[in-house]
Write a structure and sequence with these properties.
749 residues; mainly beta; 22-stranded mixed sheet
Amino acid sequence: MAAQYHSLFTEKGLELLRESIQNGTKLGITHMSFGDGAGSVPTPNAAFIAMVNEVYRIPLNRLAPSKDNPNWLEADGVIPSSVGGFNIREVGLWAGNVMVAYANYPPTYKPSGDQGTAQIKTIRIVLQIDNTANFELKIDASIVMATLQAVDEAKHSAIQYADDTKVHVLDFLAELSDIPAWDGRVVYVKAVKVGQKFGGGYFKFSKFNELEPDDFIVIATPDGRWVKQQTIFTVDDFGAFGDDSTDDSIAFNTYAESPYTGINILLGKRKAVYVISKQVDCKGKGIIGHGFSKQSGAFYDHTSIKVKDADFSNANPIYHNRAFINVGAEIRDLQLKCDVKTIDGLQVGGYNTTISNINFTNFYNQIYVDGATVSFRVSDLMSIGCGNAGVFVADNANNQSTTAYFDRCSWQWGENAILFSKEVYGSSFKNIIAEYMNGCLKAKVFSSCIFDNIWCEQTKDGVAKDWLINTMNQQSFNNTYNNLYIRTPWLDRTNPTDIANGDNSGGVSISKSAMAINGPTGAKALYKINGIGTRHADWFGSSNNPVSLRKLSISSQPKAIGSNYITPVVIEAPNGALWYKNDSDTDFTPVTKRTLIGASSDGLSAFYGVDIYTKTQKKWTTSDHNSGSIGQFLAPLMLTYDATWANQQNNAGWVISKESTGIYLLQRSASNVSPMSNPNIIVGGMTLGNKKGSGGAVNYSLQYIDTYGGSWNSYSECSGVKIFFRDQAGALVDVFRFTVMFTLTSGFS
């Protein structure tokens, strides 16, 4: 009984076999076909000349005698993984158009590649040959050998391809020059330099790449370029060791010069201490690390930059003795430490710079700003042990600093927290801590600035110091002070309840349930729970001179401390009633009050009107206004000019004289007569020709006479006035008689 699944020669196949034996020709079996049997497994029949239902045909992959039985001929066909979607129930072997052999096959489904179970299918047919020796002579050996050779070549090709395309591993970059390079080849480099364990990566060779080489990211060869296959780089990619001993300055500088590293220098994401022993020029690139930790040696060892005591000199004074120069717009997440306090840390520009989450120790200036500040932001900064300043704004271009914003910053055990060499305007200082410092905030001028939540506790040497210093005394104004915690020995010139002094800070201060509006030159308006008043500096009102420009009309002080000037009016209302200090409710003793109405003839002392009053009556005396008295009065003055008078009128030291035709002078008769200040002058009673007048019309105009060059423009002050008379035709004409009425402001400057 025949096996269920078997193969046989077809009648046509046997004819070809006999011809090959008789004629000594090759059998010529070249292809294998597959069919689905039209839905059922066929029974092999020698009379078949074709498949029941052929679905696929391929060249033979192998045709050879079996190693197990020399009477067997093995034919192998391989269906690739991409071909499928059909059932296999029958197999045929072909020599040209003749089906030489036929076999039925156990039903098997061959999926295609897009059906999710792609596979390569190999099918073998075994034919039994009675005359093996004859068959061995007549088999188409060229086809068999060709097939075997192709397989062998494919095998060798696959081996060669795998060898060529596998990723070779190199220990360091220099080894790239020792290996063959072809387009598309990829190698892996463990480290940049010998002895390193970091900075490696994949490099791909490009024959046609023309990128500028930097010897780290792009490496040039005579035939092309090795290009590192990543987009984010750190200083480790440029050979930084980070071992707390090897100088990494070259790696930082090379990083800054590379055209492939972006706008910031990035530290490696690992435990590393980068040592800097030479000046690093950042070329406008910022510096970004990986965090801010507690300020101790153990935490600095996690990740930090350590600047050694070395030569950081530079011919340009802006860059001299500074570790990092030309640092870009963003600096964050860093820890920096210096071995000595004689070297500056970071040199930055003052325009649009952002510094955040950064920790400094022991630099002379932790941050050196070479220009004035504009939109300059510093936040979450910790500074320990600065030799001069945590932030020093040098302002080398001699500009005014503006819009500097400091927030959540702490300075300890150093000299100055923030030091401006010039003025600063429109800036804010919030959430500031200064402990064991010799200075907190210092500038020539602070104006229109905000100081909020300032904590000052202990000075470095225990000596009392101002937390806010204007190097141009008394030039702080338009500022706001709030939530200040200034502990002894720190001095607070902004305290609303303190009497201002020579170091007064101008602006609005709010503290201890009080608010004060401080003038920049010693005056203060105080608002507190029990009343409103004014206060002033020790020197404010330097004498009891009633014409002093430094007087205050209303004050809670009877007189300025340190001076002899008595405040004209003192208001205190402890019982809710308004009363004159030092006057009791029952005392009706007359009190003499003086009213300043002018100045005496010497121009130096006051001229008073006397006011004697009691609680029940009040009487005013008259004041002497006769023309013989020399002085400057609040009342209007009048002078008349008459052409026939040999001696013109003199009123309070003022006279009228003729200069030339139509031009008359109203001026002081002596230099000790006070000059005019903002005078009001009216000319009237003008007659022409004679005492009766001629009936002619005349107009007048005025020209003020300066007391000295430029005084009128500067002070609105003059020593007299020229009066010009013109007829209707505009010609200067003499006036027989006219009167001038004018007023003068009392007091001397």
